[in-house]
Amino acid sequence: MKSLAVLHASQLITLTGPGRPRLGPEMSKLGIIRDAGMLIREGKIELVGPSDEIEGQMTALSSQVSAGRYASEIVDAGGRVVMPGFVDAHTHLIFAGNRLDDFERRARGESYEQIAKAGGGIWSTVEKTRGASEVDLLAQAKKHANWCLRCGTTTAEAKSGYGLTLESELKLLRVLRQINVPPRTGDAIRDSRTARSPAVEGGGAGSETPLQIVPTFLGAHAVPPEFSPDEYVDVVINEMLPRVASQRLAEFCDVFCERGYFDVDQSRKIFCAAKRLGLNLRGHVDQLTNSGGARLMAELGATTADHLEQTDQPGIAALKKANVQPVLLPGSVYALGARRYPAAREMIDAGLAVVIATDFNPGSSPTPSMPMILSLACTQMKMSPAEAITASTINAAYSLNRGDRIGSLEPGKLANFAIFDCEDYRELAYWFGIPRTHSVYVKGECVSRSGGV
Ligand code: NIG
Ligand code: FE
């Protein structure tokens, strides 16, 4: 029986809470225990408390077990911050290549929309991704997953969306499943018959990546040139969604609801079809223009509405009424060189359970770093460091329907945590551009160790 004791965290950020997402002022409550630790057994947290209590409990338990010491491994956090691993609730983890040309054109002053019209943008990544083999995509996805782990993220939502044909969208989702589920004898990368529920807890030892991945189908990311918009909506609804659902390749369905991509009516059609097939909904809405996307997600009873840079007061009120969680993505505003960040303060003050995420993707947000997002949340969206921590852990976990398993350090939850090389949690948002991750654990196993700086 594998057991582990963590001792001497300067601050153990437990986020012990009400058993639901934290709303409004609750987002400031982190449940910090000083000079604290945890007892972990078989990948789950058994006990959380001050270090002397943990040590006392270890001694008591050791006298009961024949093998001697209760904890087979002791991790001395050495006066550093220990907190739940980040839960990154919005990423485009799997793609081929990069968008360096777009980046340079933006630096010269062209906009995201102009670059897309001129042949860059999402479509250029689609071309590269369609051309990549599953083996190459697997290697890319593992590389990106490793970047996330190194930043302290232990769970990431990951979208398809750079295939835009039935086969290539299925290919992306299959690779996401393949890297996340511990292999069974006989499984191979090309074997699409290994249909296991993605709700199975992935990640940890034995998987291709220890990062836990939550898959989302984003077939409606852009309209490929071989179709008219309405024709492609039909393909998504009649060909893609039924296969994605029957093979249980995704838990969520997403749509890029935006001028030039999918309008509100087309988005509604896709989301309704996804809902009928049992998928939950998250949507890219109100990113570049206010198209009423937030209201649409409210009307549909979506789990999340993501981006929301242009959302107005009625949109915020609609999200609140329908209990939809906003997922704010300041990395994309920053990297696009835009000015308008989402109205995080108004959302928190309206009592919404705000989430922040990286939007990691090659075009609008090439960062896997949640600490960078914390910095932007505090400096650009005027969230407090405590609110940013809540938004990137427990609230994010609820937005992925995993609030009962991850996102806080409480007995019974998975031992997914990160040790950061700082004494005070506020340092995570304060220092920027310098990695502070000391080590990262998934299900009680050390999966990344950089030792801090
Ligand atoms: O969330 N807005 C749509 N999708 C991504 C960008 C994808 C890309 O540019 O490749 C986003 O910003
Ligand atoms: Fe996105």
Features:
single chain; 453 residues; alpha/beta; 7-stranded mixed β-sheet; 15 strands; 35% helix; binds N-(iminomethyl)-L-glutamic acid; binds fe (iii) ion
Number of strands: 15
The quaternary state of the protein chains shown equals single chain
- As a percent range, the share of helical residues equals 25-40%
Mean pLDDT: 93
First-to-last CA distance: 33 Å
Instruction: Write down the Rg.
Output: 21 Å
Structural class given helices, strands, pairing?
alpha/beta
Main sheet overview: 8 strands, parallel
Per-chain topology:
Elements: E1 3-13, E2 32-41, E3 44-50, H1 51-62, E4 73-84, E5 86-88, H2 100-107, H3 112-117, H4 121-131, H5 134-150, E6 153-159, H6 166-180, E7 212-220, H7 229-246, E8 252-257, H8 264-276, E9 280-285, H9 293-299, E10 304-307, H10 313-322, E11 325-328, H11 330-335, H12 344-349, E12 355-356, H13 370-380, H14 385-391, H15 394-399, E13 417-420, H16 427-430, E14 437-442, E15 445-449
Parallel strand pairs: 1-4, 5-6, 6-7, 7-8, 8-9, 9-10, 10-11, 11-12
Antiparallel strand pairs: 1-2, 2-3, 4-13, 13-14, 14-15
Helix pairs in contact: 5-6, 6-7, 7-8, 9-10
The chain binds N-(iminomethyl)-L-glutamic acid (NIG) and fe (iii) ion (FE).
